[in-house]
């Protein structure tokens, strides 16, 4: 996914875990693409943690496992999108195209 986003002109930073992302404290991050199921802290917990810390990043969730309660929780928590794997490149591009108006340049 990182290569794909880079090919569209986005700057991408990848992390091996939610905890790794939190340790990095990327002040320049404009959007977060996160898998729902991660080792350690899951994507929903990361979303909640960001909200607790007052960080308002658009979060795009991706998951291979459909879970309606997780979808509802993510969207109620302010997720910008909740996408099912395998990702359709067109769907991902449309999601980022929608977000681009809200992202700082």
Which terms would index this structure?
5 helices, alpha/beta, single chain, 105 residues
Description:
The chain is 42% helix and 12% strand. With 105 residues, the chain is of the alpha/beta class. The chain has a single domain (32-105), classed as Rossmann fold. It has a three-stranded parallel sheet with strand order 1-2-3, sandwiched between helices. The longest helix has 12 residues, at 89-100. It is globular. The chain starts with a helix and ends in a 5-residue tail after the last helix. The mean pLDDT is 88.
Looking at the structure, the CATH topology is Rossmann fold
Largest sheet: 3 strands, parallel
- Which structural class fits the helix and strand makeup? alpha/beta
Mean pLDDT: 88
What general form does the structure show?
globular
Number of spatially distinct domains: 1
Helical fraction equals 40-55%
Series of H and E elements: HHEHEHEH
Number of helices: 5
**Strand proportion:** 5-15%
Side-by-side strand order of the widest sheet: 1-2-3
Secondary structure: number of strands:
3
Task: Summarize the model shown.
The protein has helices at 2-7, 18-24, 43-52, 68-76, 89-100, and strands at 32-35, 59-63, 81-84.
Topology:
Elements: H1 2-7, H2 18-24, E1 32-35, H3 43-52, E2 59-63, H4 68-76, E3 81-84, H5 89-100
Parallel strand pairs: 1-2, 2-3
